[in-house]
Amino acid sequence: MPQVVEFLGYVPWAAPAIFGEWLVMARRANGLSRKRLAKRLEVDESTVFRWERGYGRPCSRLLARVKAVLLSDGFGGSGCQRDGESPFRQRDQHAADSVALLS
Question: CATH number, domain at 12?
Fold first, then answer.
């Protein structure tokens, strides 16, 4: 999925309405499987699954880790840009809006 976002220059899906939707979107945009995201967050894969399905959400400590892992421009620091603007700005803004709703 990261290559699609890079090619298009924007995130090709609507802004998520709830944290679980945002988590799925951000995880996929970063090219991460549930298992890999869980490993980075140091939680069980089933925990990530439950969050994505709306059965709870991370505590404030874990939410900070989620933000750190998924809101970075990552992708190996490719720094890809179109018209001087990061193609991930829209993704990050959607994510920030979603996370703000939960804070």
Answer: 1.10.260.40
